[in-house]
Amino acid sequence: MTPKTLLVVYHTMTGGTEQMAHAAAEGARGESGVVVRLLRAPQAQPEDVLGADGYVFATPENLAAMAGMMKDFFDRCYYAALDRVNGRPYALLVCAGSDGQNAARQVERIATGWRLRGVAPALIVCTHAQTPEDIARQKQIGSADLAQCRELGAALAAGLALGVY
């Protein structure tokens, strides 16, 4: 059987989203029959999107929106993948300072345009960083939140391996 590919695309500035993306990838790597590709948003290209069977998108919330580098990723890949990835599963991770809902909505709208299938509600981890100093400092995501990221990655990979998605 040909292995399935799970593409994890993320952006980070203060490390929180990177920790979450790595945890999801780690969880997914525990599933045999699934190859996990972990790419920073600037490195991810349309051929990476087209070559994957499922996706995890991970973005920080910046100014109540998805990170600009994630938007850049979607801008560069959107039309090349349009109508070529229909029905593929995805999950979303958001590292938020406030609530993360708008960043999640933005990514979900793009995923809807790609006709992707969400397999879980967006997993939003709120750091409550509200001062300029807290916003700029390196983040440390808690073990319980990272465990949820690992579980989400594992569940998506299991669904790919079993042919559920």
From TrEMBL:
InterPro entries: Flavodoxin/NO_synth, Flavoprotein-like_sf, FMN_Rdtase-like_dom
Pfam families recorded: FMN_red (PF03358)
One GO MF term attached to the UniProt entry: oxidoreductase activity
Residues spanning the signal sequence: none
Top-rank taxon: Bacteria
Keyword vocabulary terms for this entry: Flavoprotein, FMN
Domain Flavodoxin-like positions: 6-165
Designated name of the protein: NAD(P)H-dependent oxidoreductase
Organism annotation: Ramlibacter monticola
Organism lineage: Bacteria, Pseudomonadati, Pseudomonadota, Betaproteobacteria, Burkholderiales
